[in-house]
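Good morning,

Attaching, inline, the backbone tokens for the sequence recovery test we're adding to the shared suite. The designed sequence is right after.
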């Protein structure tokens, strides 16, 4: 692993897992997503990871037109690296998932590195009343859901987005996903440095045990040597401890309301920026410096903010 002299903070603004009934602070509209992204960048996030939603219902919306309602504003008002999801919303086709990144040609796009059971149905049991009809079946339906990322799908995404100069946040939910990435590296389809996002705490993937983070690092070291940067996110209440441990081990961090709605035990985060400020304060207490967007660009060798299509 490339041991970072400065820590890249990624902030994932809204995602497609949490639903509006879970928190009144979850950004839904383009105005809210833009404002939250700008504030998170001002708080210290070098990278902003983005999903879009229907502004009326909060349902995941992967149309390029919806992204264009906030992408230009974020670019104009921040220097942050913009990272667009290709995970989209649960149950979307590959064409729907890839569409925004292919249309807007961002510096970075996410790339899920394998198919797996993706179960967030337990969240439905914690909600007494839903604001919208789509929320409950969306959550409960994941008891019988596989998040599809076949080798053919991954290769199609890598090649099509790679042709636009987009680099990747390789999202690894299980240890086998690292070996899947190594397969594409060996074939020369993706080039270093690799930005690997270890994801812990989603039912169906790696559990939120800190030992698993070390296992990911050791495995990635064997597979990629010093040709990768490791970031880590812990879902829900595991967010800050996973980020802190990975930073201590020389890696990078991801926070944001996509991954956790809370900023402390039983305390809803009122904004994405609040989580960014918290992890930044932790890093400062540990005498760690955070990377600016341009420093992160140099570390990840992105094409630069002037070579996107928005």
């Amino acid at each position: 692993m490339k041991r970072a002299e400065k820590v890249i903070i990624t902030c994932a603004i809204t995602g497609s897992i949490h639903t509006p009934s879970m928190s009144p602070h979850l950004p839904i509209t383009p105005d809210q997503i833009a404002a939250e992204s700008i504030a998170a960048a001002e708080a210290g996030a070098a990278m902003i990871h983005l999903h879009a939603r229907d502004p009326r219902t909060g349902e995941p919306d992967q149309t390029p037109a919806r992204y264009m309602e906030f992408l230009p504003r974020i670019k104009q008002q921040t220097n942050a690296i913009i990272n667009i999801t290709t995970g989209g919303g649960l149950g979307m086709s590959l064409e729907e998932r890839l569409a925004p990144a292919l249309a807007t040609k961002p510096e970075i796009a996410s790339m899920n590195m394998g198919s797996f059971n993706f179960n967030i149905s337990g969240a439905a049991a914690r909600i007494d009343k839903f604001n919208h009809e789509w929320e409950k079946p969306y959550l409960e339906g994941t008891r019988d859901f596989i998040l599809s990322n076949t080798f053919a799908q991954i290769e199609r995404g890598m090649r099509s987005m790679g042709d636009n100069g987009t680099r990747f946040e390789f999202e690894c939910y299980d240890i086998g996903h690292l070996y899947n990435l190594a397969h594409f590296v060996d074939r020369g389809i993706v080039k270093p440095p690799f930005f690997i996002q270890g994801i812990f705490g989603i039912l169906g993937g790696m559990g939120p045990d800190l030992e698993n983070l070390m296992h990911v690092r050791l495995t990635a070291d064997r597979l990629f040597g010093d040709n990768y940067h490791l970031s880590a996110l812990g879902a829900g209440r595991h967010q800050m401890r996973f980020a802190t441990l990975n930073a201590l081990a020389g890696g990078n961090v991801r926070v944001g309301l996509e991954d956790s709605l809370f900023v402390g035990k039983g305390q809803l985060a009122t904004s994405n920026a609040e989580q960014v400020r918290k992890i930044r304060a932790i890093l400062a207490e540990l005498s760690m410096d955070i990377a600016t967007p341009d420093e992160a660009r140099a570390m990840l060798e992105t094409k630069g903010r002037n070579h996107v299509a928005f």
